């Protein structure tokens, strides 16, 4: 079974600080990888995704993530956060040619202090 | 305006009662999903359906039931057998059931169920 690990469930940082959220998964085959974000009171929405090609993926609102196959990782980064980045962030993995289900990590609650 | 609708936003029930949560999508998606979100637990899959009249259990299906009689609708019933039903329930859909298609899931606004 797929599993997805996200560490440091609560992250507190100041505006303009850099953010990196780790995501590791346990599946040896071909995967699709996603980061979703849930802003306070809003729908869960897609931040970025990796299917194939360039392992450095750019998403909305200045976020990017890097797929490192050898490390089974898909870490999310933003060089300079804003107060509006306060949200919960979820990493998710879909193993291709499996049962087409997404496995989600437990999430990172990020609070940006103005 | 395409999207996923879940109603109601808040739902209160007494223990021992069954309750049905609504999920409707007008995105013409084949696949639909129900998740449960608890603080610090992430999203856990309850049931999913890849095509009309077919559905499969997810990781935490006990105490829940679903139906998929129409492509656009995937209601979830929380039965009295569910030991800890108070939670935030999210419905999602995706474009196709084949592994080679884009597999982004689109989420509804959620229903917060409180059982006392």
Question: Which properties best describe this structure?
Answer:
heterodimer; A: 114 residues; mainly beta; six-stranded mixed sheet; B: 116 residues; seven-stranded mixed sheet; four-stranded antiparallel sheet; 11 strands; 51% strand
What does this protein structure show overall?
The complex is a heterodimer of chains A (114) and B (116). With 114 residues, chain A is mainly beta. Helices cover 0% and strands 52% of the residues of chain A. Chain A is built from no helices and twelve strands. In chain A, the strands form three sheets. In chain A, strands 2, 5, 6, 10, 11 and 12 form a six-stranded mixed beta sheet that branches. Chain A has a four-stranded antiparallel beta sheet with strand order 3-9-8-7, with no helix packed on it. A two-stranded antiparallel sheet of chain A has the order 1-4. Chain B has 116 residues and is an all-beta fold. Helix content of chain B is 0%, strand content 51%. Chain B has strands at 4-7, 10-13, 19-25, 31-38, 42-51, 54-57, 64-66, 76-78, 87-94, 105-107, 111-115. In chain B, a hairpin with a 2-residue loop joins strand 5 (42-51) and strand 6. Chains A and B meet through strand 5, strand 6 and strand 10 of A and strand 4 and strand 5 of B.
Brief summary of the model shown:
Chain A is mostly beta strands and 114 residues long. Chain A has strands at 4-5, 10-14, 19-21, 24-25, 31-38, 44-50, 56-58, 64-68, 73-78, 87-95, 102-104, 108-113. Chain B starts with a strand and ends with a strand.
């Amino acid at each position: 079974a797929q599993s997805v690990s996200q560490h440091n469930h609560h992250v507190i940082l100041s505006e303009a600080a850099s953010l990196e959220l780790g995501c590791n998964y346990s599946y040896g085959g071909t995967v699709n990888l996603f980061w979703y974000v849930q802003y306070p009171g809003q729908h869960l929405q897609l931040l970025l995704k990796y299917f194939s090609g360039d392992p450095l993926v750019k998403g909305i609102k200045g976020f990017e993530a890097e797929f490192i196959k050898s490390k089974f990782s898909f870490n999310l980064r933003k060089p300079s956060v804003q107060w509006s980045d306060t949200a919960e962030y979820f990493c998710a993995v879909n193993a291709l040619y499996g049962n087409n289900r997404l496995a989600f990590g437990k999430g990172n609650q990020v609070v940006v202090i103005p | 305006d395409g999207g996923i609708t879940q109603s109601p936003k808040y739902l209160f029930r007494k223990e021992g009662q069954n309750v049905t949560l609504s999920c409707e999508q007008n995105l013409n998606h084949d696949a639909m999903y129900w998740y449960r979100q608890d603080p610090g637990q992430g999203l856990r899959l309850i049931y999913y359906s890849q095509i009309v009249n077919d559905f499969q259990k997810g990781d935490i299906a006990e105490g829940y039931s679903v139906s998929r009689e129409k492509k656009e609708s995937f209601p979830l019933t929380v039965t009295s057998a569910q030991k800890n039903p108070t939670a935030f329930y999210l419905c999602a859909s995706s474009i196709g059931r084949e592994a080679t298609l884009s597999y982004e899931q689109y989420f509804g606004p959620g229903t917060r169920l409180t059982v006392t």
